[in-house]
Fold each of these.
Amino acid sequence: MKQILIQLDTDPHPSPFDAIAAYDAGVDVVLGFGEITPENLADVVQGAMFPRGPEGLAQTAFWVGGSNVGDGEAVFSAACKLFFDPFKPSIMLDSDGSNTTAAAGLAMVRDEVSLDGSRAAVIGVGPVGLRTAELLRGEGAEVTVLTFPPDVFDGKFRRASGIKPAQEAGFEVTEPDSSDELDAALPGHVAVFAAGPAGIQVLRRRGWQGVDGLQVVVDYSAADPVGVEGVGRDDALADEDGIKKLGALAVGTPKMKLQKRCVQRMFETKGTVMDLDGVYDVAVEIL
């Protein structure tokens, strides 16, 4: 029986990136469906659940993707509610790659620094930043969530759209008015994760170099210029004066390994649910 992965994508066109990752993970057939919403997904999900019977669902799985994480979470939740014993296929949520990126980044540094009871900072309230903050909290860290200071956008104020979701997730969000204020907020944190938009430097070298207590700095942005000045794209926990640097491309390769392994795991155990915590469990295991 062939392995079939059903893409439930919230964008008009199902992601070719996700489809290629699925094929590289060994899936036989990928069926992509775009513009999926909680209101229109029932026919697609049920049409995939019933033809093979309960046992055949071990070879059928769902991947919720798309560029809008909030929409993806709504589709993921709605899809899970359609499952019932014994019709419970596996399902994964990785909208915009945010779950696998955050999980890979944290899994790579969790053994480099003691997070439980320590303070960690996340710069950026977008999907990857918020997921990183949630995972850090799960590791027992006290998390400081910061928005980007307006001056990093060359004086053009850019509203941080992720503040409300971060607050709803239980985080207090600090909004520095300048890069100087951002720098001043970082001493005392053992780790700093920068989750900025592509091509925007959100943290200067002076903001992390020699900072009291800092042991690890992570940059998720690979575009030029990188998000953290002085952190190279390929830095794989490179040491600089006692601070280990992890660059975006050094996170990207393990992230792809993780994404493929999560797909494979869904076909190994029927009914596997790959939410953020499920993805992180796999990341800790393999990375």
Note: Residues 248-268 form the longest helix (21 residues).
Amino acid sequence: MQANSLAPTLLLAMPQMTDPNFARSVVLLCRHEAEGAMGLVVNRPTDTLASSVVLLDPPAQRDSGLLAWVGGPVEQQRGWLLLGYDPRTPEAMAVGHGLYLSASADVLRLLIEGRADGRTDHRFFFGYAGWGAGQLESELTASAWLTVDVTRALVFETPGERMWEAAIRSLGIDPYALQMTGGVH
């Protein structure tokens, strides 16, 4: 990660963000480099079971009820695991603040089968949010996003539908007092 990287941080969409992929979104910025940036929208759960959108071979022996979350509009056929612990697998990538990204089928199997030792600090996402070189910086300059420090409690314990408001309030800001003009539409 570069010294001037914003990652890891949470990006909070300003109210004027009208793109349906990002309206009222909370994005965990996982990578931020000169070539671009990558993150996961962490406040969009679905009612879809992860087991119904992934093909494990052999099939899972049981289903823990792990839900799939929409991680963003890019490559929605691709799955990601966000973990609040190190899964100790070679493909796991440290994001920061004790958070790890993985695409390991073995780790996913453990989570789907409910063999995560009682842990609840994990999410399965499909898709991700991506920005080309300079794109995120332009959006930040246009006041499209607020930034807030990553907290595990916000990411793993706050219900998706309340996360955006809770994150903005953590800055001491009333989300309903935010200006509704300018920014990226």
Note: Helices lie at 50-53, 105-112, 135-141, 152-157, 160-169.
